[in-house]
Automatic annotation (TrEMBL):
Keywords: DNA-binding, Transcription, Transcription regulation. The lineage of its organism: Bacteria, Bacillati, Actinomycetota, Actinomycetes, Mycobacteriales. This is GbsR/MarR family transcriptional regulator. It comes from Antrihabitans spumae.
C-alpha cells in the first residue's frame, strides 16, 4: 500500500492539473502517484487499489494521459497485464512548439480583420493576444535551446540524472 504522503502528493497533483489544465482530477492523481510509486510500473489493478478508484476510472485516466504522451503501457514477454509508467519521453521538451503560437496568432488576426472598423478598445484584446502569441512563437525555440544546454550541464555535473529513454514493447 502507498504511504499517506504519496497519496497526499497525488491529490495535490490532481488538484493542480485540474485547476491549471482542466484535467479530470483522477488523471492528475494518477500522474502524481506514478511519479512517486514503487515500483515505478504499476498494473491497472495496483493503481486502482492504491488510489481507491475503480478500474474504469484508472483506465480512463491512463487513456487520457497516454493521449498526451505522458504515460505509457508496456507488457513484458509472458505477462498478461499491462504496466503503466511515466513515459520517459514526456520529460523531454515538448511544449516549445512555436507553430502552435504562430497558428494562434493567425487565427486571431482573422478575428481582428472582422473588427477593422471598430474602436481601438474593441480591438485591444485581439491585438494583445496576437502580440503575445507572436512573442511566444519567437521566444520558445530560444528557450528550448537554453533548456537543452542547461539540462546537459546539470547532467554533466551530476545535479540531474541522465534520463532513460528506452522504449519497452508496446
Amino acid at each position: 500500500m502507498p504511504a499517506d504522503a504519496e497519496i497526499v502528493f497525488a491529490d495535490h497533483v490532481g488538484r493542480f492539473y485540474a485547476r491549471q489544465y482542466g484535467f479530470p482530477p483522477m488523471a492528475g492523481r494518477l500522474l502524481g502517484y506514478l511519479f512517486v510509486c514503487e515500483p515505478a510500473a504499476q498494473t491497472i489493478d495496483e493503481l486502482s487499489d492504491a488510489l481507491l478508484a475503480s478500474r474504469s476510472a484508472i483506465t480512463g485516466a491512463v487513456k487520457m494521459l497516454e493521449s498526451f504522451n505522458i504515460v505509457r503501457r508496456d507488457r513484458a514477454a509472458g505477462e498478461r497485464v499491462d504496466r503503466v509508467t511515466i513515459d520517459p519521453e514526456s520529460r523531454q521538451p515538448q511544449n516549445f512548439d512555436s507553430a502552435i503560437h504562430k497558428e494562434h496568432a493567425a487565427l486571431f488576426r482573422e478575428g481582428l480583420a472582422l473588427l477593422s472598423d471598430s474602436a481601438p478598445e474593441r480591438r485591444a484584446p485581439l491585438e494583445e493576444t496576437i502580440a503575445l502569441a507572436e512573442f511566444l512563437g519567437e521566444r520558445l525555440p530560444e528557450l528550448r535551446d537554453e533548456w537543452l544546454v542547461r539540462r546537459e550541464n546539470l547532467r554533466r555535473t551530476g545535479a540531474l540524472p541522465t534520463a532513460t529513454t528506452t522504449k519497452g514493447t508496446r
